[in-house]
Amino acid sequence: MAILVTGGLGYIGSHTVVELLNNNFEVVIVDDLSNTERFILKNIEEITGKRPVFYPFDLKRRELLTQVFDAHHIEGCINFAASKAVGESQLKPIDYYENNLFSLINILQEFKERGISNFIFSSSCTVYGQADKMPIDENTPLKMPESVYGKTKQMGEEILSDFAKAYQRKVSLLRYFNPIGAHPSAKLGELPIGIPNNLVPYVMQTAAGVREKLNIWGNDYPTEDGTAVRDYIYVVDLAKAHVAALQKLMQSTSEEALIDIYNLGTGKGSSVMEVVKAFELANIVEVPYQICDRREGDITIAYANADKAERELGWKSETSLEEALKTVWEWQKYLETRNTEIKL
Ligand code: UDP
C-alpha cells in the first residue's frame, strides 16, 4: 500500500515525503523535475534512511501514470505537482490551465477507474482573495482569484468536490497561507531557481549578497507599519498537517463522500517589515531594502483562523517566525557549500 506524492521533490512536497516516511508510509513520487533538482531525492534518503520510489515524468502523460498505478498498490495521493508562479501564470494562462488541471484530471481518472479514495490537494489562501474580515476561517466566502494560478487552485477544488460527491470518495483541500523555511537538517528547502517572487527567498538572497536590495512592495497599506500582512507558516509544520489530513481520510469508515477543507496557517499576521527585521535579528545579518510601489494584484492582509485543523486533525503550527527564518539561513549556507548554481 503506497501513497502517490506528485511533485514530491518540490519544496512542500519533499518535506511532506520526509514526514510520510517517518510515519512509515510507503511513498511513490512522480515529479518532472521542472522546478527542482535530483539531489533532493538523495537528501530525502539521507534524512530518513529510506529511498522512496521515484518516477521522473510529466503527469500529463497519462499512459506513464497508468503504468505507475499498475505497478503499485496506490491507496491515496497528495498532489503537489503544479506550476505556481503568479506573474508567469498571467503571461501563460493556457500552459497553467493545461499543466495544473490536466495532471489533476489524469490522476482522478485513475482513481475513478480503480476505486481509490483519499486525495489531498494543495490549495491556497488565494481562493479567499482580500477577505472582508480577519482572521480567515473556512466559511469565509471565496472570491474569484485575480491570477490564473489562483483560478487553477479554485477550479481544482471544484473538480475534487465534484469527484468526491459523484463517486463517494474522500478528499481534503488544504489551503496554505505563506509557507516558509527549510528542513532542520538544512538538506531540503526552496531551491533558488530564477529570481524569487516570494518574500522570504528574496530576503535570503539579499542577505547573502546574491541580490543587492530587497524591494518592499508598498508601505502605504492600511496596516500598522504600512507594509502588507501575511501568515507565514513553517514548511515542516505544514508537511505534518498533510500526514494528519491523510490519516483522517484513511481512518474514516464512512461510505459517503467526504470533503474536508482546512486552512493551514499560524493564526498570526506578520508584516513585510516585521519579516525583514525578524530575519536580521534571528540570523545577525543585514537585509538592505528599498520601498517601492505596491505590486499589482497584492492584497493588504491575510491571516488564518486554523482552529478547525486543530480541532479535527489535532494539528497546529508550532514553530515561531524567528525559528523558521533561522532554518532559511542554514539552507542558504548549505546551498553555498554545495555550490548549487544560482540561475540569475
Ligand atoms: N513582497 C515584497 N518584496 C518581494 C516579495 C514579496 O515586498 O520581493 C511582499 C509582497 O508584496 C507581499 C508579501 O511580501 O505583501 C508576501 O509576498 P509573497 O509573494 O511571498 O506571497 P503572496 O502572499 O503574495 O502569495
From TrEMBL:
Task: Specify whether Isomerase is a keyword of the entry.
Answer: yes
Annotated metabolic or biological route of this protein: Carbohydrate metabolism; galactose metabolism
* Pfam families for the chain: GDP_Man_Dehyd
The record's annotation in InterPro entries points to: NAD(P)-bd_dom, NAD(P)-bd_dom_sf, UDP_G4E
Domain (NAD(P)-binding): residue spans on this chain: 4-326
Q: GO biological process annotations for this chain's record?
A: galactose metabolic process
| GO terms of molecular function | UDP-glucose 4-epimerase activity
User: Would you say which domain of life the source belongs to?
Assistant: Bacteria
Please list the reactions this protein catalyses: UDP-alpha-D-glucose = UDP-alpha-D-galactose
| Entry's EC annotation | 5.1.3.2
Please give the cofactor(s) recorded in the UniProt entry for this protein: NAD(+)
| Cellular component GO terms held in the UniProt record | cytosol
The answer to whether keyword NAD applies is yes
Keywords for this protein: Carbohydrate metabolism, Isomerase, NAD
Q: How does it assemble?
A: Homodimer.
The record's similarity note reads: Belongs to the NAD(P)-dependent epimerase/dehydratase family.
Designated name of the protein: UDP-glucose 4-epimerase
Which species is this UniProt entry from? Chryseobacterium taichungense
Q: What is the lineage of its organism?
A: Bacteria, Pseudomonadati, Bacteroidota, Flavobacteriia, Flavobacteriales
